């Protein structure tokens, strides 16, 4: 048996159970590795979902993490990315959890997590826009930075996330979120993840930017979606905000 084969079988024994062929010695030693592996992955989930952990508490979160680990074992070399399917797992098992808003809370936390680790970029500057000839504006196409995410949520979890993320008391209790259809924009500015709630028109325009629509099409969309009289001014105001927030990387 080659060393590579033995290593692969040992890995399977630790992560999936069972004893690999050729393993000798006390089986309790193998169980130590299995336990350490589970504990480390549960710790990784707590790191990636701190607000969810604080809402559920140690015991309930550990139970959720253990069930998730059985259903979706880690498949990547880095445990930094462990937990990407937790929101959908929560949605599929919502009847076993204390509140249906936990899925939205998990989605928001994971998006903030991804924003921090997104690829570096050079933000679009106001000087670049100022240098654009007037006749080029109708066909101007913008590009969103890699960290941008638009989350369509059913619960007002953003205030809960804010309170739990800033509270120094780990036992602080927060009011349950309200049922509310809302859109959260998540992105990174400099080295810090950011988020804010946005209006339906801005969400619609950002989705259009992501789809490659030009400035002229954005203005047409503003008219059709919100009946804006001066669509160019409305889209221009959003554009100024996006540049200030470093949402765009090029034109």
In brief, what are we looking at here?
Helices cover 52% and strands 12% of the residues. The chain has 251 residues and is mainly alpha-helical.
Blueprint of the fold:
Elements: H1 3-16, H2 27-48, H3 50-56, H4 58-71, H5 86-92, H6 102-117, H7 126-130, E1 143-144, E2 149-155, H8 158-166, E3 179-189, E4 192-198, H9 200-210, H10 215-226, H11 231-244, E5 248-250
Antiparallel strand pairs: 1-5, 2-3, 3-4
Kindly provide the name of the CATH class of the largest domain: Alpha Beta
Instruction: Give the CATH architecture of the largest domain.
Output: Alpha-Beta Complex
Q: Order of helices and strands, N to C? A: HHHHHHHEEHEEHHHE
Count of all domains: 2
Helix content range of the residues, please?
40-55%
What is the overall number of helices? 11
Q: What's the CATH topology name of the largest domain?
A: Outer Surface Protein A, domain 3
The major sheet is characterized as: 3 strands, antiparallel
Distance between the termini: 57 Å
Shape: elongated
Strand coverage percent: 5-15%
Low-confidence stretches: none
State the strand order across the main sheet: 2-3-4
Pfam family, one: DUF2063
Domain Putative DNA-binding: 6-90
Protein name: DUF2063 domain-containing protein
Could you explain how this protein is built, in words?
The chain is built from 11 helices and 5 strands, in the order αααααααββαββαααβ. It has 251 residues and is mainly alpha-helical. It folds into 2 domains: 1-98, no CATH class; 104-251, Outer Surface Protein A, domain 3, CATH 3.90.930.50. The strands form 2 sheets. A 3-stranded antiparallel β-sheet has the order 2-3-4, with helices on both faces. Helix 2 (27-48) packs across helix 4. Residues 6-90 form the Putative DNA-binding domain.
